[in-house]
Amino acid sequence: MTARTIADALIEAPIVTSFTKFGYEARKRLAGWSALDGYDLTDHVIVVTGATSGLGYAAARQFAKCGATLVLVGRNADRNKEVVAELVASTGNPSITQVAADMGDLRQVRQLAERVLADHDRLDVLIHNAGALSPERHEAPDGTEATVASQVVGPFLLTTLLLDRLAESAPSRVLTMSSGGMYAAGLTVSQLQMPPETYNGTEQYARAKRAQVTLNEMWADRFGHLGIQFHSMHPGWADTPGVDASLPTFSKVMGPLLRTPDQGADTLVWLAADDEPLGSNGAFWLDRRTRSIHKLPTTKRTDTAERRGQLWDWVTGAAGCGVPDLEPSARSAGSSS
Predict the structure, then answer these.
(1) How many helices (H) and strands (E) does the chain have?
(2) Of 161, 206, 272, 311, which is most buried with the most CB atoms under 10 A?
(3) Would you call the peptide bond into 14 cis, given omega within 30 degrees of 0 as the criterion?
(4) Each residue of 33-47: b (16+ CB within 10 Å) or e?
(5) Band of pLDDT at residue 266, cut at 50, 70 and 90
(6) Measured between alpha carbons, how far is 135 from 199 in angstroms, rounded to an integer?
(7) How large is the average pLDDT for residues 145-153?
(8) Rounded Cα–Cα distance for residues 330 and 156 (Å)
């Protein structure tokens, strides 16, 4: 074990040091990270959902600076167009377009996929970043709880619809922005959608994020042989409009310790641009290193092969799509990648 690995483990143990800007800065210095501006993404087509604010906007701006061809996805077309204009003006990159789509509306997700396939003959990176923590329960048009619809079902459908194009563009990548909040939730299918009488926005968000990282591993197991890298990550605690709106007390108390959006998005951009992530598949990342998807024995006990199979079957049905059910590789349930 190297001195750098030992130091990283010491930073990782206490959540406050690991998730805040102090963990980011310490790891950056210890590992001597390469600067994101040094990556050339010319001719790379990247789709980013939730790209008009916070982490998605920070990542999109960096991708634009690196010369990528970008498709920005947000719910509001007018806001999308404003962001496109801002990025073109600030980066000088004209290859930026937008598609208005709500990731919780499956009809709009299908239309988004149609646009991407019609406009681009390759797809190098698909980034699932859309989604927010809602203190009140809402439902998507199909009746699915909105958090689950936008962060689990919608991304699953979009990946399915774009899978062939991703395979044709291999080596390609599907990246999911998860959250450290998922560490508090076990894997559940029957209780994935919280009912109105017991709904808690923070808990619902954590359950959805747990499902995201589990599905990420399962996508890698089933379709990694196509030359597609599936990775998920969490940004630490970042100061974004979403955090301010959904967790105002947390944002106020932790404000001085929170990462900037650029710091929170760093690993996402690195996963899209660097060659190192091509050496693994299905991993969960924080600050450019793989991490376990479990910190608590209670959540690890819920992560069984049977429950994973139930999750895959449920989300396939909820998305209304047929995904080839190929035999998974030898990855064991709940592996740390």
Answers:
(1) 14, 8
(2) 272
(3) no
(4) beebeebebeebbbb
(5) very high
(6) 9
(7) 98
(8) 22
More confident residue, 323 or 91: 91
Tell me which residue of 217, 231, 212, 233 sits closest to 155, measured CA to CA: 212
Residues with a catalytic annotation lie at 205
Q: How far apart are CA 194 and CA 196, in angstroms?
A: 7
Q: What is the mean pLDDT of residues 229-247?
A: 80
Helix (H, G, I), strand (E, B) or coil at 238: strand
Q: Report DSSP state, residue 73.
A: E
Pair 308, 218: CB distance under 8 Å = yes
pTM of the entire structure? 0.90
Rg (CA), the chain: 19
Contact 155, 214 (CB under 8 A): no
Give the length of the chain: 337
Which positions ≥6 away from 277 have C-beta within 8 Å?
A: 173, 229, 231, 270, 271, 283, 285
Contact 232, 212 (CB under 8 A): yes
Instruction: Determine the Cα–Cα distance for residues 227 and 171; give it in Å rounded to an integer.
Output: 5
Which domains, ranges and CATH numbers included, belong to the chain? 33-319 (3.40.50.720)
Residue type, position 116, single letter: V
3-state SS class at 296: coil
CA distance linking residue 237 with residue 18, whole number of Å? 9
Between CA 285 and CA 337 the distance in angstroms is: 9
Instruction: Give yes or no for a contact between 209 and 246, defined as CB atoms under 8 angstroms apart.
Output: no
Please give the structure tokens belonging to residue 232.
């998920």
